[in-house]
Amino acid sequence: MPPIFADTSVDLAAHETVARFPVNTFLENIVVAENGTLFVTNHEAGQIVRLSPGEEPSVYATSEGKVAGLALLPDGGLLVTGWSAPDSATGAAVPTISRVAPDGTVTTLAEAEQGVAGSTAIAFGRSARSHFSLRGD
Fold first, then answer.
1. Of 49, 92, 95, 121, which has the maximum CB count within 10 A?
2. SS3 22
């Protein structure tokens, strides 16, 4: 682990721990719903974890691949960027954009064939258009 993470953390501001995850859990992004519920992407596990006020963390949705960027949709669903599960023949994963319905159902909306180039972040602008950060190769 890089030296910056080797030492005990330093409190820079007042805070409250709302959940603990196993060592080496790769939490990538977080969004907060109006009711205070937190949604966090567990990148390597392909999970979106829900942390509702006063409740234990629970898996809200699972992707077959990896999840990265996360944004709330007006209907309470989520828009998620990530990668597919590795292809069984080539081992390659392709970038994806998926929708998670309010019931946790995951639907892939677009992949590399539709022009997805890989993204780790997503946000909505004032016009409600989505914006993605793309990784350059």
1. 95
2. coil
Whether 51 contacts 60, CB under 8 Å: no
Quick one: which H or E segment has residue 3? helix 3-6
Q: With beta carbons less than 8 A apart as the criterion, state whether 95 and 118 touch.
A: yes
Residue 49 to residue 68: CA distance in whole angstroms: 12
Residue 127, classed as helix, strand or coil, is coil
Closest to 82 in 3D by CA, of 48, 39, 130: 48
Phi-psi group of 12: left, alpha or beta (phi > 0 → left; psi -120 to 50 → alpha; rest → beta): alpha
- What amino acid is encoded at 118 in this protein? G
- The region that residue 128 occupies, defined by phi over 0 for left and psi between -120 and 50 for alpha, beta otherwise, is left
pTM of the model: 0.77
The CA distance from 95 to 124, in Å, is: 19
Inter-residue contact 63 to 80 (CB < 8 Å)? yes
- 9-63, pLDDT tens digit by residue? 666 778 788 888 888 888 889 999 989 999 999 999 999 999 998 899 999 999 9
- Cα separation, 83 vs 92, in Å, equals 10
